[in-house]
Specification:
By secondary structure, the chain is an alpha/beta fold. 35% of the residues lie in helices and 24% in strands.
């Protein structure tokens, strides 16, 4: 079973260098909607293990990466494919809605 592991400003290169698409959740301990999204992302990580990696980054503790991707609201989820952001989801949504956005971005032709 895959898990949602934490990345930091110093380890974010693992996201950019990944062979599989990576969904990164920008979150904070004080963020209520982030707590709602957490279990959904854990399910996605388990169900899509091998085809999609799921990571999280604490926006308060990692301002460099948070600024780099212009994250202004939490939770923000950014899907990286080939090291590039290809989809951004801002806010807490049901699993079906998140999957719909992911599937659309993952099946779109690469640039």
């Amino acid at each position: 079973m895959s898990e949602v592991s934490e990345v930091t400003d110093h380890t974010f290169a693992e996201v950019l260098g990944s062979d599989v698409p990576v969904l990164v959740e920008f979150w904070a301990t004080w963020c209520g909607p982030c707590r709602m999204v957490g279990p959904v992302l854990a399910q996605l990580a388990a169900e899509r293990s091998g085809e999609l990696a799921v990571r999280k980054i604490n926006a308060d503790e990692n301002p460099e990466t948070t600024r780099s991707y212009q994250v202004m609201s939490l939770p923000t989820m950014i899907l990286f494919r080939g090291g590039e952001p290809v989809e951004t989801i801002v806010g807490a949504f049901p699993k079906a809605r998140i999957e719909e956005r992911l599937d659309r971005a993952l099946t779109a032709p690469s640039l």
